[in-house]
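ESCALATION

Customer reports they have been waiting on this structure for their group meeting. Please prioritize. Original submission:
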Amino acid sequence: MRTTVESEHQVHVGPGTPVGEYLRRFWLPALLSTEVPQPDGPPVRVPLLGERLVAFRDSSGAVGLLEARCPHRHANLFWGRNEEGGIRCVYHGWKFSATGQCLEQPAEPENSRFKERVRAVAYETREAAGIVWA
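Update from on-call: job pushed to the front of the queue and completed.
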């Protein structure tokens, strides 16, 4: 018979947990392709494996799946604007691509390279059979 501690250890799927780390090795169905129908449309909330994620379709049609918190001030990217190849945080205007790379930082000087070192947590996605897999 399992103890409560063993049972708790086996049912949690969040980041850093044994089962969570195991499940993150496989492609998982994240949402339906119809939930993010058009490029530059509104973002969608996606709770997956104990994480709060945001999905969006960029201008090229690629689906991005990012952690919902902006890496700068942890504003919720669900409220961001999906525009011209990425999602823009409404708090400070930082813009992230579907791969999590920071594309723009409006308050930084023109020659600043800081955006090259900033990334949002992003998950690789693929579309097949009407499902977005992550």
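Sent to customer with the following note: The helical segments are 4-11, 18-23.
Escalation resolved.
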